[in-house]
Amino acid sequence: MSKIPVAEGIFPWPSEEPVLLGSRCTNCGNHMFPVQDGCPKCMSDEQETVELATKGTLWSWTVQAFPPKAPPYQGPVGDDFRPYGVGYVELPDQVRVEARLTEADPEKLEIGMELELVFDSLGTDDDGNEVVTYAFAPVEEVAS
Questions:
Q1: Ordered per-residue pLDDT tens for the chain, 144 residues
Q2: pTM of the model
């Protein structure tokens, strides 16, 4: 069984170390995720692809308690579905990224907590490949 990314261009693949790919406007310095062709801030079409910070703070969050609409959702459904956290993670001096969270317990999530980027398995595709996406985990969880 191979590991494959959930989508091309979101993070370098294959890779042992998770990092997100974004854009930086060479005209105004605005950062965007995912990679964009144009800047929504100054309307310039001069962008460069950059690696985004791998640590940030939780800006806002919720718990996804039911399977989202598929497509694009590719995770488990029915009895196999498990609620998961989703939130906006503020990457310092860059951008807020919407992401899965590895934690889904509301008692363990707090706005402003430090999070770190990790790879997360969504399950397997029809060919038996493990589908990998990105997520953010509490720093204490990554350290242990």
A1: 799 999 999 999 999 899 999 999 999 999 999 999 999 999 999 999 999 999 999 999 999 999 888 777 777 888 988 999 999 999 999 999 999 999 999 999 999 999 999 999 988 888 999 999 999 999 987 766
A2: 0.90
Region label for 128, one of left (φ > 0), alpha (ψ between -120 and 50) or beta (otherwise): left
Q: Are 77 and 64 in contact (CB under 8 A)?
A: no
Residues 42, 69 contacting (CB under 8 angstroms): no
Strand ranges for 33-113 from DSSP E: 47-51, 55-64, 84-90, 96-101
CA 74 to chain centre: 15
